[in-house]
Structures are given as C-alpha cells and as structure tokens.
C-alpha cells in the first residue's frame, strides 16, 4: 500500500512537470510569434499605404511581455494542474485564422465606419488580434477551466496596457515643466547659463549646449515609465497576493515612492544625456543613453522595489 502511494505521488509529480513544460512551450511560441508580428507589423502598414500609429516607445513596448511573465510566475501552481492538456484543433485553426485576418485588416475599416480616431482603431485591431493569437495557442478550454478569474484580470491589465498611452499621452505637457526647471537649475550651477532655447507644445524642449542640439520630446518626459511602473505594480499586487490581503497604506506609499524616484532619475538621465552629447559623443548620447539607459533605469527601479517591498505589500 505504501509503495502504491509513493507511485501515485510520483505519477502526480510527473504529470505536473509535464503540465508546466507544455504550458512553457506554448508560452514561448506565443512570445516568439508576437515578437515577429510586432517587428513586421509597421512595415506591413507602410506596404498597404497606411501609417503605423504607436505610442509605445522605449521600454514601454516590452511591457506586454513583462505582464505575461509576472502572470506565468504567479500562476505556476494552477498551470501545473493543467496536466499538459491537449489543444482542440478546431479552436487553434479558427483563432489563428481570425488573428491573421485582424492583423491584415486596415484600420480605416473601423475608423471610417465606427467614427473612431485612426490611432484608437489601430490599437483596437492589434489588441484583439493579439488576444485571438493567444486563444489559438492556449485555447478557450484551458483559459476558462484553469484560469477563469486570473484570465479576466490579465485581460483587464492588457487593456490598460493598450489604452493607457492613448488616455494619458497629453500629460507630458504637465510633467515637462519640472523637467525644464531641473535642467535649467543644474546647468546654471555647473556652466552658468540656461541651455533650453525653446519649449514647444508638439516637440517639447529644444536644448543647445556647445555644438550639441537635441530635442527632448514627449517620450523623454517619463510618462511612459510612470504608466509602465503603474501597470506592472498593479500586476504584482493582483497576481502575487493570492490568499493574502493588500496592505493599502503601504501599497500606496511604496507606489508614490516609486513614481517619484523614476521621475527624479528621468531628469538625471536627460541631464547626463545632454552633457554626454555636448562634451563626449553625440552618437553615444543618442544611441546608448537615449535608447537603452531609460530601459535599464526602469528595470532597475522596478526590480529593487519588488524585491525590497514585496513583503510589506501584503498582510
């Protein structure tokens, strides 16, 4: 009897391992396909004579993958219980065809017939197509059998990911003023003059230091980092709390600390970029600091906050 019990435990463990391996395989396929689509989708839009609208610049364009990773890590136990389920071929083919049709559909069909702005139509089609692609790989039977409540939460976060840049994109004009003050204050202390020559509503700050001229545009305002931090922070609270309760006081104070830290570091990043371009190398400033430093700063801040404060978020 004891041997039978050990054998049953061993079989259960093997089935859980197979369930996790099966899901991981599907998850990697989805990430790979979505990466391909994200890479070639703008070129396809140009090929059919339509502009590609995107407010997902810098690090923000990778946020979707981080949301999925947090989801997978937090749902490991439920994923194991799926026991390597088998996809229904009809669902896989059906939703795959639907995703291809949606990715190929010109957004003007929505914008012209439903009277919505082109950028919203573009995002709406792309997001529904991405969800259809997920359904083709994971299937409805898995999502609603093993991930009912969690799937709904994930869907709401994904909707926030796609819609937040559209809703809050104009806030950069508000948060740019302290950035302007910060840059002027530091440069006046160090070189004794103001280097911001102009501030325009569309282009942001125009900076001139020595022979280095650069526009500090809306994407540099830090609004995307703030939105990204907010969404990932919510994902952490939602998916990691499980049976615990959220400590609301700590959660709010930690969130505000994170936003303020990101904002201050973003000002420092811009100043370093300007000085690097003026005194070291314009190419280094644009290609290294502008393209990669903001992503590294964001990732560094988020990882520190989750590691340091995760235990204080729940009671």
Secondary structure elements and pairings:
Elements: H1 2-47, H2 63-74, H3 76-80, H4 89-104, H5 108-113, H6 118-138, H7 140-146, H8 148-168, H9 172-190, E1 196-200, E2 204-209, E3 212-216, H10 223-240, H11 248-279, H12 282-313
Antiparallel strand pairs: 1-2, 2-3
Describe the structure.
This protein has 315 residues and is mainly α. It has helices spanning 2-47, 63-74, 76-80, 89-104, 108-113, 118-138, 140-146, 148-168, 172-190, 223-240, 248-279, 282-313; strands at residues 196-200, 204-209, 212-216. It is built from twelve helices and three strands; from the N terminus they run H-H-H-H-H-H-H-H-H-E-E-E-H-H-H. Strands 1-2-3 form a three-stranded antiparallel beta sheet, covered by helices on one side.
Please trace the helix and strand order, writing H or E for each element.
Answer: HHHHHHHHHEEEHHH
Gyration radius, rounded:
23 Å
Tell me the overall shape: globular
Q: Helical residue percent?
A: over 70%
Uncertain spans: none
Count the DSSP helices: 12
**Number of strand segments:** 3
Structural class assignment = mainly alpha
The separation of the N and C termini measures 41 Å
Q: Biggest sheet, open or closed, and with what strands and sense?
A: 3 strands, antiparallel
Oligomer: single chain
Strand order of the largest sheet: 1-2-3
On the 0 to 100 scale, the average pLDDT is 76
Tell me the fraction of residues in β-strands, as a range. Answer: 5-15%
């Amino acid at each position: 009897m004891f041997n039978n019990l050990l054998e049953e435990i061993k079989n259960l463990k093997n089935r859980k391992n197979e369930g996790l391996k099966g899901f991981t395989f599907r998850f990697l396929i989805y990430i790979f396909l979505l990466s391909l689509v994200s890479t070639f989708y703008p070129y396809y839009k140009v090929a059919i004579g339509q502009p590609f609208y995107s407010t997902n610049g810098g690090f923000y364009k990778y946020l979707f993958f981080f949301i999925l990773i947090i989801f997978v890590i937090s749902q490991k136990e439920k994923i194991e219980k799926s026991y390597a389920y088998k996809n229904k071929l009809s669902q896989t083919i059906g939703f795959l065809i639907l995703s291809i049709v949606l990715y190929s559909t010109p957004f003007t069909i929505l914008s012209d017939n439903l009277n919505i702005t082109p950028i919203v139509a573009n995002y709406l089609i792309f997001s529904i197509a991405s969800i259809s692609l997920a359904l083709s790989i994971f299937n409805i039977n898995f999502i609603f059998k093993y991930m009912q409540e969690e799937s709904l939460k994930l869907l709401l976060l994904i909707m926030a990911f796609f819609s937040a840049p559209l809703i809050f994109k104009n806030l950069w004009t508000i948060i740019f003023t302290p950035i302007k003050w910060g840059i002027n204050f530091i440069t006046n202390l160090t070189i004794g003059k103001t280097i911001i020559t102009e501030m325009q509503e569309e282009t942001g700050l125009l900076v001139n230091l020595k022979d280095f001229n650069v526009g500090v545009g809306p994407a540099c305002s830090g609004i995307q980092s703030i939105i990204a931090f907010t969404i990932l922070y919510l994902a952490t609270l939602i998916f990691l709390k499980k049976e615990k309760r959220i400590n609301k006081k700590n959660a709010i104070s930690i969130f505000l600390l994170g936003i303020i830290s990101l904002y201050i570091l973003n000002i420092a990043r811009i100043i370093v970029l300007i000085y690097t371009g003026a005194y070291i190398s314009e190419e280094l400033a644009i290609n290294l600091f502008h393209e990669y430093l903001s992503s590294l700063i964001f990732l560094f801040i988020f990882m520190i906050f989750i590691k340091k404060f995760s235990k204080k978020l729940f009671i």
